[in-house]
Design brief:
about 450 residues, 2 domains, 13 helices, elongated
Length: about 450
């Protein structure tokens, strides 16, 4: 295949990763130490992303808290950074809650969300003064019973999105009204602090509209004697991986022949979109209702805002590196096989493809080499263990001992679906930091 005919989708790289790649030995030293594939994580970037959310809230003079959606990445190194910056963490299991506590997050700065929760999780949350998003009437009843011994529980009532009536998360309008009445009756055990929701997609307007509806509900509930003061609008803050020109060009010209075996995908993550991250939060807060911004309505009603970004706090904060095991030519393009499994790039296991170009880091650069087209397969015996179905353009033919780097995988990619299939160990997470004028590394704990 003529590599000129293939699209190029270079990832937007941060300075820290360029420094890592500019060191001719660092990645190979790490690979030698760990003996296989590995993930690089860079907590300082999460810190910068978190500060941008804090600054946006402060700029609108809105009280609030930013909860890191812990399910987006299991590494422990993020948590001390969050604690140092007075952030918070959103969890959905006992191990996640314990992990957050063990890394310095105060119980009061932990939110517990998700579907129906175990009694053990509800009990642990109540004892540590976490705020719990209640998802159903029977969960509210269990929380009230547990609070008799565990202590008064702080809760949010999660609203079923009106435009997603078949979602399995949240209370319908009727159940929400019943839950508010029950909270009034149980106020010695239950402290209703406010309401929450989570919407799919990355649109600004639906989030602002539902937030405004719940601000008005807060006013009604306050009139009934329940001093609610909190609204959580969940996560789903958009992220950008590619330039607009590269992304829109790919979508406009996409052809089946660009993919191994003519593989077809129904949808892709929107790799270039806007507004993103804290700018999306800014747009939500700037949306006007009755001639005034959402931020003004929050301030006037003395309501604090919780947000729960996961991917948006991890954007640009990590990558995944696979050693190359071999390369073979297959018709007019090649197949590169790496030491690792496609489960470590989770988009492939959601019926889609992780599209930013992988970066070949050759052990020996060949100045006379010609570019080659290649897809990328994993080391398992399964035909569908493919990390990259798209035929990507590599600067030279990959060889055993080279490295293939997948950029920007920290958010939901590097450990969501990992498996020890074939008894292969999970790739370790390697924490990198800039110290004394050079990049240092250590294993995550």
């Amino acid at each position: 295949m003529n590599t000129v005919d293939l699209p190029v989708l270079p990832a937007l790289e941060q300075e820290w990763l360029r420094k890592v790649r500019s060191d001719p030995h660092l990645l190979f030293d790490i690979q030698h130490a760990v003996g296989g594939p590995f993930h690089l994580v860079y907590p300082d970037q999460l810190g910068a992303n978190l500060r941008s959310f804090h600054q946006t809230l402060a700029g609108h003079r809105v009280r609030g808290q930013v909860y890191y959606g812990k399910k987006a990445n299991k590494a422990g190194c993020w948590l001390p950074t969050i604690a140092e910056l007075d952030g918070a963490v959103d969890v959905a299991s006992e191990p996640e809650l314990v992990h957050a506590l063990a890394h310095g997050i105060r119980g009061r700065d932990i939110g517990v969300t998700g579907a129906a929760k175990t009694d053990a999780l509800l009990r642990l949350a109540a004892r540590h003064d976490c705020v719990v998003a209640i998802d159903a009437l029977d969960e509210l009843a269990r929380m009230a019973a547990i609070a008799v011994q565990a202590g008064r529980a702080r809760i949010l009532l999660r609203r079923l999105p009106p435009n997603a009536p078949h979602s399995r998360f949240g209370l319908s309008a009727a159940d929400l009204a019943t839950a508010i009445t029950r909270c009034a009756e149980l106020r010695d055990r239950i402290e209703l602090v406010g309401f929450s929701f989570h919407l799919d997609g990355y649109a600004v307007a639906p989030r602002a509209e539902l937030a405004y509806e719940l601000i008005r509900l807060c006013a009604k509930v306050k009139a009934q004697g329940l001093p609610v003061d909190t609204l959580s609008i969940g996560g789903g803050f958009a992220c950008r991986y590619l330039s607009d020109d590269d992304w829109h060009g790919f979508l406009a010209d996409r052809r089946d022949e660009w993919f191994h075996a003519g593989k077809r995908f129904e949808k892709f993550y929107p790799y270039a979109q806007g507004p993103t991250g804290a700018d999306m939060l800014d747009a939500i807060l700037a949306t006007t209702f009755d001639g005034r911004t959402l931020a003004a309505h929050l301030r006037d009603n003395a309501i604090q805002l919780f947000v729960e970004p996961g991917r948006a706090l991890l954007i640009d904060a990590g990558c995944t590196v696979f050693p190359v095991l071999g390369y073979k030519q297959n018709a007019d393009y090649g197949i590169t096989t790496v030491h690792g499994l496609s489960m470590s790039v989770s988009e492939q296991w959601k019926g889609s493809e992780f599209l930013p170009d992988p970066i070949l880091v050759p052990r020996r650069r060949d100045p006379a080499a010609a570019p080659v087209a290649s897809c990328v397969g994993g080391a398992s015996c399964m035909e569908y263990d493919v990390l990259t179905w798209r035929k990507v353009r590599l600067p030279q033919r990959p060889a055993h001992g080279d490295l293939l780097l997948y950029p920007n995988t920290a958010g939901y990619q590097m450990d969501k679906n990992e498996s020890e299939f074939h008894q292969l160990p999970l790739p370790p997470k390697v924490v990198v930091s800039h110290q004394d004028g050079r990049m240092m590394w250590r294993l995550d704990t």
